[in-house]
Each structure stands twice: as structure tokens, then as C-alpha cells.
Amino acid sequence: MKRFPNTFMAAALLCLFTACGQSSSTAREASAAPTEKEPAAGAETAKTEHSAESAAATEAATASFFTVTCEEKEEMADEPEEEDEIDGEVNDPIITRTCTFRDHKHVAVGEADYKGRYSWVYSLYKVENGREVKVANSSLFNHRQNELLQQVNKRLQTEFRQIANDPENEGCLDGVEPLRDYKMDELNMYFMEGELVFNVELELGSACMAVSDFHVAYKLEELAPYLK
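RE: above sequence
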């Protein structure tokens, strides 16, 4: 009697419990395993746009932090006397320059002498609860302001020496003591667009008025470590 059927059955059973079964199981596992999805192109574009918008917003906020807005107006002083008109003297206007920096407002009022040379009076105000309160220069700066003050005094003294040693200014600064170290609230201070200027004026008389003014200017970005 032939034994082929039994041999075939044994081979089938062996296949079922060995390699054939493993191949089937491996195929099922491979088909069931999750596949990694590539990020959609739209998501990458949205991410890039969001980063660009964030950078632009940061740049705008930084620019706003250092923005100074100034306006200037003129008003005529008292009407000139008739003899002034005859002598050809000009009655120059009073200039009021108002600058706003964050929660501070600075007002500079300039009046001209008979030769049209202006002298200025400066005032600094802080806006609190809708009211303007007059404050000292030091209120604008933080606990590091003494570091800034040392720099300002050093630069002012350097400018004084340069002007005093200029032969063209001989006679005006002879015998004048070099500039001392000033306190923050002793300095004149005013805003220009994007800048803050520190100023010292000496009483040298009208003939030397042109060399009586010493000043140093800082970009507001330079002052960032010292501002409140």
C-alpha cells in the first residue's frame, strides 16, 4: 500500500507549526505595524510663517521701547519795541519742544537773547494715573545709573579739555576750572529723536557763549542696561 497521503499530511503539519507559520505571523505583524508619517508640507509652511511673525513682533516691540516722539511749537514773545525795529533787531520766538518717551514727558523751553542765541530750561515729567508729575533725571534710570554717570562725566570732561586746548578758544576758558563730577540730577538732560543728551553749561559771558556748552549724546539702545 502507498504511504504518500501520510507523508503529505506530515509535511503539511510541519509547515503549519514551523517556518510556514512564522512567515504568516511575520507578514501579519508587518502589515499591522504603524508607519511613520512625514510632516505635511502645509504644517511646515505654517510653522515657518509663525516664526517669522514672532520675530517681526519682537522687533516691533523693541523698536517701540526705544521710540521718542517730539513736537515743537513757536510763539512770539512780547511785541518788539519801536526802537528795536529801527535798530534792525529781530524778536525771535519762544520755542517749546515736547518729547514723549514711554511714560515720561520732557519739555524744553528756549528763549533767545538780542543776538538770537537761545538759552534753554528743561523739565521732566512722569505720567501717573493720567497726571503729569515733575520728577528728577534719576527717576528715568535703574540701580545701575552710577555706572552711566561715570561714563557721562568722563566724556564731558574729555570734551572740555578738547575745547579748552583749541587755540581758537583762547581767552574764553583760561583759568576756568575743569569740569567736576556731576550728579545725575545736576545735569541738563533732553531728548532728541532716538537719543538722550546730557549737557552742562558754564556761565562764561555773552562773548564766549559759543564754547560754554558741553554735551554728550547716547542712542537710547545704548542706554538699555540703565533704563527702568
